Amino acid sequence: MQQVVHDPDAIRALVVAARAAGRRVGFVPTMGALHAGHASLVARAVSDCDDVVVSIFVNPTQFGPQEDFTRYPRTLAADLKLLEPQGVRWIYAPEVAAVYPPGDATQVVVGGPSLRFEGERRPGHFDGVATVVCKLFLTVPAHAAYFGAKDWQQTLVVKRMVSDLGLPIEVIVCPTMRESDGLAMSSRNAYLSSAERPRAVALVESLRQAAEHWSAGSGVDAIERTMRETLSAHGVVVDYAAIADPESLEPLADDAVRGVALVAGRLGSTRLIDNLLLPVRVTSPRGTVL
Ligand code: AMP
After folding, report:
1. How far apart are CA 242 and CA 261, in angstroms?
2. Does 15 contact ligand 1 (Cβ within 6 A)?
3. With a threshold of 0.90, does the pTM exceed it?
4. What residues contact 38, with CB distance under 8 A and at least 6 apart?
5. Which of 32, 87, 135, 228 has the fewest CB atoms within 10 Å, i.e. is most exposed?
6. Across the strands, what pairs with 263?
7. What is the rounded end-to-end Cα distance, in angstroms, of the chain?
8. Is 38 a catalytic site residue?
């Protein structure tokens, strides 16, 4: 039976006791409004571990002042129902004041992979993510934490923080779950109107095109131009459409063999992101490289 725990000291004590009893503990941090993407992380954690903790916490510090913190969907009852058959042991759902006590003045700031793309467009976003994930890792001292490739840049920021701070937790990245037309599942898809929803498929289409052109040996500029054209043709206002180094997110040289394609854009007031790890390529604009 799953148990909802609100108090940080209580969840820490439960996890510490489970570990002392020799049990492997997995942790899936979420902001709730759970869907099949979240469920896939939970399923992986349940299959790898003896006890699984899912946190549900809409973290205020990762939202900018003009962003959707207040209207972000909060659906605890439905979330608990979705988790019920999955075999989760504990759901950690703290109050904001338990995570950010009065007078809170500490932040975790990660450079490197947080600087471009989301970090550039959403100042402070990754400071909020790194800070809350660090706090959660200290409160839920699990063996392993599960994150979605859907938020590729976030996985790099979390891995960088874990490595730099020497946090004793393994970060496991799970594949992106998609709707039948390819749209990446996201709690924010609920904001899309019925007119916007079919146009949202442009994000994944632009990524798949990028992968094709990449494998055919096209150059970075040509690939990025095609991505932007596809997004614009569907009425998506492009925030960025780029390919980059999959580990550092630095710009790619034309003869690079590894890359990730990343897109962000707006449909009406809804901002969506997606990404695709590109296949290691054998042909670049300068000829065969492998
Ligand atoms: P969120 O609740 O949006 O903060 O997401 C919680 C976790 O679920 C993050 O690690 C996300 O990357 C992951 N996630 C969100 N959407 C998907 C998806 N479509 N497929 C796989 N993982 C996802």
Report:
1. 6
2. no
3. yes
4. 28, 30, 82, 148
5. 87
6. 241, 274
7. 52
8. yes
